[in-house]
Amino acid sequence: MEKSAVLPDNIPVKRSGLSPIVIIGALFFIFGFITWVNGTLIPYLKIACELTSDTESYLVATSFFIAYTVMALPSSWLLKRTGYKKGMAIGLFTMAVGAMVFIPAAEARSFNMFLAGLFIIGTGLALLQTASNPYAAILGPHESAARRISIMGICNKVAGIFAGLIFGYIALKDADSFEHNLLSMSADAKEAALDELASRVVVPYIIISVMLVILAIVVLRSSLPDINDDDRGEQESADPLHRKTSVFQFRHLLLGVLTLFLYVGVEVMAGDTIISYGKAIGIPLSTARFFTQATLGFMLLGYIIGIAAIPKFISQEKALQICAISGVIFTVMAVLNTGYVSILFIALLGLSNSLMWPAIFPLAIKGLGRFTKTASALLIMAIAGGAILPLLYGGISERLALSFDKATASTQAYWIMVPCYLFIWYFAVKGHKIKSDKHSY
């Protein structure tokens, strides 16, 4: 029989052993698998759909991540109506529908249809993330929230590594020779070859869709508790500092939204552009297809460090400061070097980015009480940074290519990461602090 317990931050939650954490861990695994396969889909769809530029191929990330901005607030509304558990199940079913769209998209070799499928998957993920991130953040003491989210991050990045390896083998194992052979094929032979390439994703996405439906059923039948953050809001409202009428009155939350926007942007750039970047500087695609896994590997290392060090040896605020400064250093080193050395520093950004989400999210929602669901939705909207910054990188790279060779242009475009990391550092040092003066909002 489940027992109700009050956690240190006064949120009443039903205890049910490890099952809530296990289920949330499984959901984060799904997030990682679905999200990080985009790094492989970008060069794959550029070939299969005969796209003319890298920037156009980055619309893969744009269509996927922009769904978070469009759907996050509706997700918050839906969660208030259904509760966390039913909302997460609906999100999983939605993702299954998006995965099935890949079947007609592959048959028609329609890039727009692929983008539609990605948008639907992103819509489901927006709902899932809006619900699951507060779970990971508040199922325990605030001081160790970054540690719990780091554990979820390991599930996420391990899944991303598997996704890249599996889809890289399926879709890009012979990409270099395939592109070379296309140049000498007749029109009919070229169409047949491209159709075969496009069809490679059909079976994997059918499997993904079935697994999503099964997980949705598991979530519905699980003992996963609903978090009653409204009760916490009522308790906090007794404090004059928390007598707020709008979520927009919390300055640290608004800065957190912008910080998360920039962080997701640089994280997606490091993971999703690195394959195309490797190809641009002359590295064969058969080798470059593994570069996203290198980035994720460094992120995984960072999460392990976070679990061991936070909060025992270092606070989540200090960890965020260190990560932001290292992001600046690794970006500068990537731009100032060439070849595999430059690739190494882009991959090392995975280490810098690893502890940012685990630190930013709990710092941004701290002390929000009944506004937690809406605040979570705003933070999920900030994931749109992954839609906009990679596209901005591609646009800058193409503009620079008018004056420089493609390799130099692709390298120099990474300078846009530096101000992003500097703002993240500001949030870690000062921006996350809750203001006591009501007029400061």
From TrEMBL:
Keywords: Cell membrane, Membrane, Transmembrane, Transmembrane helix
Gene3D superfamilies for this protein: MFS general substrate transporter like domains (1.20.1250.20)
InterPro entries from the UniProt entry: Glc/Gal_transptr_bac, MFS, MFS_dom, MFS_trans_sf, MFS_TsgA-like
UniProt GO molecular function: D-glucose transmembrane transporter activity; galactose transmembrane transporter activity
Domain (Major facilitator superfamily (MFS) profile): residue spans on this chain: 20-441
Transmembrane in keyword set: yes
Compartments (UniProt record): Cell inner membrane
Entry membrane topology: Multi-pass membrane protein
A Pfam family this chain is assigned to: MFS_1
GO terms under biological process: D-glucose transmembrane transport
Positions of transmembrane segments: 21-45, 57-79, 88-105, 111-128, 149-172, 202-220, 253-270, 290-310, 319-336, 342-363, 375-393, 413-429
Chief place of localization: membrane
GO CC terms in record: plasma membrane
Claim: Membrane is one of the keywords in the record: yes
Task performed by this protein: Intake of glucose and galactose.
Family: Belongs to the major facilitator superfamily. FHS transporter (TC 2.A.1.7) family.
Name the UniProt record assigns to this protein: Sugar MFS transporter
Organism this protein belongs to: Arcticibacter tournemirensis
